[in-house]
Amino acid sequence: MSKVNLRRSALKLLATPFALSVPLTSAFAQDKKAVRLLVGFPAASISDIVARLIAPHLGIALGRNAIVEVKAGADGQIAAQDLIRQPADGSSLFVATNSPLQAVPAMRQPPPYDPITDFSHIGYIGRYVHFLLVTRDVPFSNVNELFAYAKANPGKLNVANGATFQKVATAQLLSDTDTQMNQVNYKGEPAALTDLVAGRVHVMICSQGVALEFLKDKRVRALAVNATRRSPFAPDVPTLAEAGLKPIEVVPWVALIGPAGMPEALVEQLNQALRMTMGRDDIKEQFERIGVEPGVSSASELRQLVIDQLKIWQRNVKELGLAA
After folding, report:
1. The predicted structure's pLDDT at residue 324
2. pTM for this one?
3. What pLDDT is attached to residue 119?
4. Higher model confidence: residue 259 or residue 15?
5. DSSP string spanning 85-149?
6. 64 vs 25: CA distance, rounded Å
7. What is the pLDDT of residue 210?
8. Domains, the chain
């Protein structure tokens, strides 16, 4: 299924009302204007699809419409900085990923904002599933053969990076396997995958939502999946751990955040609405299809994830020489 069709499917989901155990704060309950859900990547991107899937259910839980607004660019930095300028009243939220909250502050000096103090951390949504892909014409049938060839032929293979997660994950895999490939950076996964299909690059780490239809059509091949379990849409593809590789330290997560200074009661209310949304069977089914492992967390657990992952990003960026 294409990203556009996935987006259409998301918009067709029917919402079922439910009640919150934490009462609406008085100011929030009285204000009926729509809640903005900011997205830092283009329309029909995986982040955009995730936002459009959860928006109607969050809106019903909160008694207000939730409208997705795309503010794409600079690895999500534009949307993040827009959010920082908004009032801390729940009217503007951000379906954020590791890119704006970890890659941007770790890779750009000076950091444009502080991912810990400049935001209110509401709740975890999930983590993206990624495949390690190769073009169909290369003679590798597993990761061992791939990295054995790369070691014997340093610099002969080209590897595509379509986003900051892929850039760091690729660098870690090359470091762990003591191999060299020519890294080619793209402005987004679709352009990178196009070149992989054409054979202009040979290797790529790509999100399931973007890669799946190409795998089904056998235009590319998957050697491993970066996930906690095998993908039900490619059950014969082993996880990185099963393939004998170290786990990728940086986590490709997605979560809901707000501007700094939101009242604790409002954060808890939004967290519960998000938990109820993520508990829906239709949301779980749609997330599985687009390659997102759904999850939930408290606000404090999400904040700790951001802190822990920021340290890992900063260390990897320094050790692997990836600063922008």
Report:
1. 64
2. 0.84
3. 98
4. 259
5. TS-SSSSEEEEEEHIIIIIHHHHSSS-SS-TTTSEEEEEEEEEE-EEEEEETTSS-SSHHHHHHH
6. 13
7. 87
8. 3-128+251-320 (3.40.190.150), 130-226 (3.40.190.10)
